[in-house]
Amino acid sequence: MSGQRGEPQTVRITAGGTDRPRQRRVRVLAAVAAVVLLGGAGVTVAAALGNGNGDDVAGAAGESAAAEELRLGYFGNVTHAPALIGVQEGLIAEALDEGGRTQLRTEVFNAGPSAIEALNAGAIDAAYLGPSPAINSFAQSKGEALVVIAGAASGGAQLVVQPGLDGAADLAGTVLATPQLGGTQDVALRSYLRDQGLSFGATSDAEVSINPTENAQTLQLFADDRLDGAWLPEPWASRLVLEAGAEVLVDEAELWDGELTPDPGQFPTTILVVNRDFADAHPDTVEALLRGHVEALDWLEKTPAAERPGAINEALEQSAGAPLPEDVIERSLEHIEFTADPLAGTYTKLLQDGVDVGLTQSADLTGLTDLEALNRVLAEKGDRDQVDSSGSGTE
Questions:
Q1: Distance between CA atoms of 145 and 247, rounded to whole angstroms?
Q2: What is the C-alpha separation between 370 and 391, in angstroms, rounded?
Q3: What phi and psi, each to the nearest 5 degrees, are found at residue 309?
Q4: How far apart are CA 182 and CA 11, in angstroms?
Q5: What is the largest CA-CA distance in the chain?
Q6: Contact call for residues 167 and 298 (beta carbons, < 8 A)
Q7: Which of 122, 166, 192, 316 is a good FRET partner for 89, with 20 to 30 A between their CA atoms?
């Protein structure tokens, strides 16, 4: 294992691309190639990175529940700022490394289904991602694949469209994009169109064509007037608005009335999940990860507003390869709330949305969340409320 302990190693993985090494990153000799087979087909993994979490060492004599290494996935999105800041500021690495036990290794994805494929393959141990891929994986595996251990972000997703598309009725005959088939925004778009009575899909008789597309390509296609709109997380919604002249047709926050969340307008955009086998084998490591995660949330909450965009932008440059204009970061942050609450009260609805649009199967979600370690960490902080897995807010 190369690198100094406590210094994360990072490689970028995109939904259909190859890793692109950046300054101070290491190139790994394997990549995840995944095809998401949703509905009744389950999940297929084409390849996975090697296992380096030290399971055999940790469990050899029951001496320690700490892993030698934790491999963490996240996206280069503003909605993943707790991960971006947690890695950039060394907060997660320091929490894991306390006592000299666990090294952090990070990998950057561009959509949830790809991250889930890596998690299921054992290529990563934990991930920041949207709730829909997590729920689908839990359902497909009958609860064996993963566990939700914290929330990270609420809000920050919009349907942005070409000027002149002023209502749902105007979407008939359009081509819309989402980051990836089965991702949280993909399910949200399909559910919205279904609620509006619009048919969708890839067939010629569908009223709306949905093309899951990598976010950077979506921006270019939209700017070239080859795409009518997209349901996107931040900063991509803001980039289309500010850089390509898009208009907001739907802010997803407006679709959540507060019945399933502590406050109206809240909905989970980013959550933190752990491979269930890893969580069972290394509870100390999971709790250390949560300490770093909560420290990152504290950083985002307490750092002066004028300093946050620059730090997030620096982290985005390291993870996604390029900084963003200041106005894009500022607009993105206006629509996001960073929170440890995974907003679990929404999960049954999100599951049903996936079932209704044909992307997942019905399932019992008992055991999807385990917030005991999170609440211990929050109690240690002393200035944060406990999180209720029923979704009612605090307990």
A1: 38
A2: 12
A3: -60, -40
A4: 23
A5: 66
A6: no
A7: 122
Who contacts 377 (Cβ-Cβ below 8 Å, separation ≥6)? 287, 290, 291, 294
List b or e across 9-39, with b for residues whose CB sees 16 or more CB atoms inside 10 angstroms.
bbbbbbbeeebeebeebeebeebbebebebe
Percent helix / strand / coil, the chain, rounded to 5: 40, 20, 40
The CB density around residue 145, as the number of other CB atoms within 10 Å, is: 20
- C-alpha dihedral, 210 to 364 to 263 to 270, nearest 10°: -50
Q: Would the pTM count as exceeding 0.70?
A: yes
Tell me which amino acid residue 1 is.
Answer: M
Q: How far is the C-alpha of 114 from the C-alpha of 352, rounded, in Å?
A: 22
Residues of the chain with pLDDT under 50: 1-7, 9-52, 54-62, 391-395
What is residue 172's three-state secondary structure? Answer: coil
How far is 387 from 353, CA to CA, in rounded Å?
24
At what angle are helices 283-302 and 372-381 packed, to 10 degrees? 50
Torsion-angle region of residue 145: left (phi > 0), alpha (psi -120 to 50) or beta?
Answer: alpha
Task: Please give the Cα distance from 108 to 13 (Å, whole number).
Answer: 5
195 Cβ neighbours under 8 A, 6+ residues apart: none
Any idea of the CA torsion for 70, 74, 76, 79, to the nearest 10 degrees? -130
For residue 173 the two structure tokens come to 């005959």
Copy the structure tokens of residue 147: 């566990």
Q: Which residue has the tokens 């064996």?
A: 144
Q: How far apart are CA 184 and CA 116, in angstroms?
A: 12
Q: What is the pLDDT of residue 356?
A: 96
What distance in Å separates the CA atoms of residue 246 and residue 228, rounded to the nearest whole number? 9
